[in-house]
Amino acid sequence: MVEHLRRSTREEREQWIREANYNLFKLKSEQVFIDLLTDSGTGAMSDRQWSEMMLGDESYAGASSYFKMKDTIREILGFEYFLPTHQGRAAENVLFSALVKAGDIIPGNSHFDTTKGHIEFRKAKAVDCTIAEAFDTTVNHPFKGNLDLNKLEDVLKSHPKEKVPFIVVTVTCNSSGGQPVSMENLRGVRQLADKYGIMVVFDSARFAENAYFIKTREAGYAGKTIREIVLEMFSYADAMTMSSKKDAIVNMGGFIGMRSKELFEKASVFNIMFEGYITYGGMSGRDMNALAQGLREGTCFDYLETRISQVAYLGQRLVDFGVPVQQPFGGHAIFVDAKRFLPQLPREQFQAQTLAVELYLEGGVRGVEIGALLADRDPETRENRYPALELLRLTIPRRVYTNNHMDYVATALANVYERRNSIIKGLKITGEAPIMRHFTVDLAKV
Ligand code: F0G
């Protein structure tokens, strides 16, 4: 598919971003020239996926599309039981309804915002056990998504088993910069989980990109196929949630994979209540077909290499211009270090959001803030939470843009970098939702 892109003038963009209250989520897509807001649901489906759409079986119960998805999940991910859901957070909602109660503790590696939202919404607590190296963008560690096993063990040791329903491992870890978790670390988490009798759940949106990094960075895996690595990764999990809008390259869809029949039965009740009958769970038959095909394509080495190399291409262009970014480069995005880019701004003025607005004004490029706005307020004290990293994420959709587009983005950001010292005022909040405020927040210039 070829899409028309509309160029705009700086004057137009100034007006549009003001009307959007400096929140890039509130822009119309036609007001954006290059859209790096997210890699979620924004990929281009292949000829084979579109062919699968024609074969969709829309039967309410027992559709062949459901069985196609079930067989593919068993073959590629190794889970016997599964439930379809309409997207990743829906999978979290269903699974957490079955597992999480008020007062619980859920350790993990920089939980994604919807995951944390679903935990905190249930009055439970997410405890971040990511390794310290992840929070210094200048440290070059190959697996910045890893959990610090000592921190994790401290959490498991200091709470009764009944209070810790599971450990959640996000592969790749989106919040720390699309950073992978090593196989050695996954094995270590499994060993601790077994020692303390706790379940392990993978938040799997970008599991194939994680497998690519294991193959290319971890000793002993260069000769293994992506599919072999994926099967080993998931062998360390009891269950998984999936946003298929990422590594399954569909516009909408998700699922839960489980090993236990008992958990499947428990979760099925919530799936029927929130999503739909257990053989469609909010998805059309045609979409389940495209998803199954997408799982096959998303786990091909050549595809992954092309994709991740494009992300690295943008990263290298930015590094060459001197722009500070999270190193090494992540799988789905380049994360610009806004604290190092705009050190003159106080954190209370939302450095990463200010930078996102500047990049939009400069070139019509839409990135997304991964910083204090996203981190939200502490549910108990209602104080702003300031995370260790303040990042502008430039997220690359799958199979959509060319490296010419990446050159344009890099040049636009380099222009902002050149005039960075003239940016002396940030943003302030004028209105916000009680949870997951970043989507709808209203801001004004300080
Ligand atoms: N887990 C991870 C690691 C994610 O990155 C996302 C979504 C979800 C869960 C929730 O999935 O959107 O299908 O409901 N991430 C998108 C992003 C929104 O832009 O990073 P969803």
Please provide a brief summary of the model.
With 446 residues, the protein is an alpha/beta fold.
Features:
PyrdxlP-dep_Trfase; alpha/beta; three-stranded antiparallel β-sheet; 16 helices; five-stranded mixed β-sheet; carbon-carbon lyase activity; binds ligand F0G; Aspartate Aminotransferase, domain 1; Aspartate Aminotransferase, domain 2; 2 domains; 446 residues
Describe the structure.
With 446 residues, the chain is α/β, with parallel strands linked by helices. The chain has 2 domains: 10-32 and 301-445, Alpha-Beta Complex (Aspartate Aminotransferase, domain 1), CATH 3.90.1150.10; 47-298, Type I PLP-dependent aspartate aminotransferase-like (Major domain) (Aspartate Aminotransferase, domain 2, 3-Layer(aba) Sandwich). Helices cover 41% and strands 13% of the residues. It has 16 helices and 14 strands. It has helices at 10-19, 47-54, 64-77, 88-99, 113-121, 149-157, 183-196, 207-217, 226-235, 261-274, 285-298, 301-320, 338-341, 351-363, 372-375, 403-418, and strands at residues 34-35, 81-85, 105-108, 125-128, 166-170, 199-203, 239-243, 254-258, 333-337, 365-366, 368-370, 391-395, 427-431, 442-445. Strands 2-8-7-6-5 form a 5-stranded mixed β-sheet, sandwiched between helices. A 3-stranded antiparallel β-sheet has the order 9-12-11. A two-stranded parallel ribbon has the order 1-10. The relative contact order is 0.16. The mean pLDDT is 97. The protein binds ligand F0G. The site of ligand F0G has 15 residues, from helix 4 and helix 5. Keywords: Lyase, Pyridoxal phosphate. InterPro entries: ArAA_b-elim_lyase/Thr_aldolase (IPR001597), Beta-eliminating_lyase (IPR011166), PyrdxlP-dep_Trfase (IPR015424), PyrdxlP-dep_Trfase_major (IPR015421), PyrdxlP-dep_Trfase_small (IPR015422). Belongs to the beta-eliminating lyase family. GO terms for molecular function: carbon-carbon lyase activity.
